[in-house]
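Students often ask why we bother predicting the structure of a whole assembly rather than each chain alone. The short answer is interfaces. A chain on its own may look different once its partners are present, and contacts between molecules only exist in the joint model. In this exercise we take two input lines together and write out one structure for the complete complex. Read the inputs first and try to guess which parts will touch.
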Amino acid sequence: MIDLGAKRAYADRAFRWMTAGAAGVVLLILWLVAVTMTRRSLPVFRQMGLGFLTDRQWSPPDDIFGALPFIWGTTFTAALAIVIAVPISLGLALFMTQVAPPRLAKPLVSLIDLLAGVPSVVFGLWGVLVLSQHFNLGRSFLTAGVILAIMITPIITSLSREVIDTTPPGDKEGALAMGATRWEMIAATVLPHSKGGLVGAVMLGLGRAMGETIAAALVIGSALGQITFDPFASGNSMPAVIANEWGEAQELHKAALIALAVTLFAITIVVNLTATAIVQRSWRPGRGT
Amino acid sequence: MTTYPTKTLAAMFAAVALAVAGLAYGAAGVTLNGSGSTLSKPFQEAAIEQFRKSHKQITINYGGGGSGKGRQDLADMVVDFAGSDSPFKASEAAKAKGGPILYFPILLSPIALSYNVGGVDKLQLSAPTIAKIFQREIKKWNDPTIAAENPGARLPDTAIVVAHRADGSGTTQNFTEYLNTAAKKDWKLNSGSTVGWPSDTQAGQGNSGVAQIVKSTKGAIGYVDLSDAKASGLKAAAIKNRSGKYVEPSPAAASAAGEGIEVRDNLLFSALDAKGDHAYPITAQTWVIVYARQVDQAKGEALKAYLTYLLQDGQGLLTEIDYAPLPKRLQERAVKQVDKIKVAAHASLAP
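Now the answer. The structure tokens for the assembled complex follow.
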């Protein structure tokens, strides 16, 4: 008996250390990534200063590295992708959970979950072949935005459905019992309940869209210096530039590409923190009512 | 714990023993790995195929990836040789882990200015005009500057679409270096694997990507290595050389450029803007770069055999795939340099 108890306490402690260790490793990796990347990008910040983030000219042989057009390209295409993907994903998720009869919903759910597991580049390549060549959309911010939207729709749908599914049935039945229509019920119970999770799902999709490399590189057009709201213009995005130019880059050029990665990293963090803040602020009034 | 039946265990041991024996057997052959220049990849592939016929025990792999990657891989000693269209920078070479290096030129390649202009089958351009076109200062095909170089040609009122590489590339490096040398006054974008192209230009992935844009866009012009231009069935402009003659890109014209160049003792040179009436001025080159000291005897000997093949019999393969062989004198110097590779005398682990 005593033996067994000691053993269990030992196992418990081991478990606690293991999980704490796993959590620590994640933080350590994140910290190491941030430190090494920032350190290796320092030369270009020394050369360009904050101009790296605000200049429009990117001319490697002259050691001039202004990343603003690429930052714009990443933001613009990711925004286009979100604008296209979010309504579709939310609609799909609501349809599967609230509207469709179980006979239809069940296979649909498995299908979307399956699609969410497919690497996004598969959809991306399909988009490249079909949109860019077959439909002759050419190579532009819009083409990239549409392809990114296709790539992130399954994952946003799948996550949204999971979140929506956790709405307590009692809430929904209560709303219906009070005479709410289906839409009123969704607006009054489902959406407020899952707001946090939905924003999280969209953020994950946004992260994927901003970091997507090859598909974007293939269709965005790789034009330099483009900062415009015209969706039909060619442009460039940060990951696409890194992928295109890394192979032949030397010294300061390499540092500039690493600095692009650091910028992307920073933007992602800022976007995520903003999203979390938004969710937390809008959460409180909704709770308990 | 699960207990395996004795038979299963015996079978597992047998499998392991077989695998070990297989490894030992495989070590009898030698494998050489190279990476780098995509410009010379078709030549490497053709040469490897032929070389294998006479050297069955030597396996050679050449992965492209670009000249910069090749140099980096060699410096880090992850490959046995690198293909590169431009030499190491001094600071880069100092970081190479395997000591001093040797350059072996293996081919010359014309970079064609391909165009797609209806009704124009012959086009003549000089470096300053090319510079103005690629900087978007000349925007129409019937611009007086172009017309002045093409008397009698019926140039249409079509807008010019400039196509260049989206990825960092040795071809871009050579093309911009040419403009930097031959159109010093007009060219403002400097030279490098990526330059600050104007934003109203088109970019394609790889030589084939640029060729694709030129082929599918009316009024387009782009720089593409000759073999890709030919493969896509594109027309190429004749370029004005240093003697004032307009020369079309061809293996013969690139070899002619090779005759007029100054080669340094370490076999480094630039074939761009070369002297000679028949020289095609936008001619690039590729070197195979290796370490002068080879520590693995089997690999070192195999490398010497392959280099000798590339520089002698292999040269005969070039013209067919639209590259130019080295001029005679340069080729002889390169062959002689193979002896400078010092192979360690001690035997490696392989039998």
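Check your guess against this: Chain B has a mean pLDDT of 88.
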